[in-house]
Amino acid sequence: MKNTDSDSTEWMPDLVDRICGSYKKEGLFEEKRCRKLPSKAIIIEITEDLFKIIFPGFYGRRDLEESTIQYYVGDILDSIYSRLVEEVERALCYWCPAETASDQCSTCDCLNSAKKIVSDFMKKLPRIREALGGDVQAAFDGDPAAKSLEEIIVSYPGLYAIATHRLAHELYLEKVPLISRIMSEHAHGKTGIDIHPGAKIGQNFFTDHGTGIVIGETTEIGNNVKIYQGVTLGALSFPKDERGNIIKGKKRHPTIEDNVTIYAGATILGGDTVIGKNSVIGGNVWLTSSVEPGTKVLATPQ
């Protein structure tokens, strides 16, 4: 059957040339042509494997026994270590200030830096597990609909989001480019809960329902805090330099002290805004200034 004009692909070579020409115009592959970005797919796989370690029997294999658990855990940890070292090395090398663009930096030691970062990160897994145990219990204690701890671990999006955050936050603290953000945005896509990996979150944290929650990079949250769906802990404004460029690294997001409850739809903005301990922030409240400890803030009926 003869090709018609409608199904001919004679235009394809010209399209390829145009697209590749745009790469050249943008300077793509020039300065960092020998450096490779970390793999998003592999980082997500590693995150899922970390869940198998954090919650054995709930993620991964269901037939675990005491006689085989050490082999199982050791095998997964070994795999995580080798893959994560490679991805962290790529992240460090891609943004390495060294002038030489190569897979292995010649004037610094990104590989050994990656090995140290990953080993230090993995040594924190027992502490992360302990913190997540408190988060699971907080969800059970705070949600009358929860029937068991197991239900929370396998089905609550808020637990998935905070577990991912506690893992990603440790890599963020090590100043590893990109990887922690890939992890947090993966959780965001799965749960609708957007927690920047830079946010500092204390013990026994619970997001009830969770959908639409936004927690900014410089947010600080104390212990025993409960947040409902649709809450935003955001920036009031962005400080700029004399050229009008946003100054990064400043405290832009609020501080939430211990034992605070924030109900659905509340918006709390600003790096100088502090919600004092034991306060209750009602639904749909808009706050841009601090409140004293023990304060109850309610939206004014219209």
Overview of this protein structure:
By secondary structure, the protein is an alpha/beta fold. 41% of the residues lie in helices and 11% in strands. It contains 8 helices and 14 strands. The chain has helices at 12-26, 40-54, 69-94, 110-123, 125-142, 149-155, 157-173, 179-191; strands at 194-195, 200-201, 206-208, 214-215, 220-221, 226-228, 232-234, 255-256, 261-262, 267-269, 274-275, 280-281, 286-287, 296-297. The protein has a 5-stranded parallel β-sheet with strand order 1-4-7-10-13. Helix 2 packs antiparallel against helix 3 (69-94). The chain is globular, with a radius of gyration of 23 Å. The mean pLDDT is 91.
Radius of gyration: 23 Å
The side-by-side strand order for the widest beta sheet comes to 1-4-7-10-13
- Helix-strand topology string: HHHHHHHHEEEEEEEEEEEEEE
Low-pLDDT stretches:
none
Taking the alpha carbons of the first and last residues, their distance comes to: 71 Å
Provide a count of the helices. Answer: 8
Percent helix range: 40-55%
Oligomer: single chain
Give the overall average pLDDT.
91
The biggest beta sheet reads: 5 strands, parallel
Shape: globular
Instruction: Tell me the fraction of residues in β-strands, as a range.
Output: 5-15%
How many strand units?
14
Q: Tags for this entry?
A:
302 residues, alpha/beta, 5-stranded parallel beta sheet, 8 helices
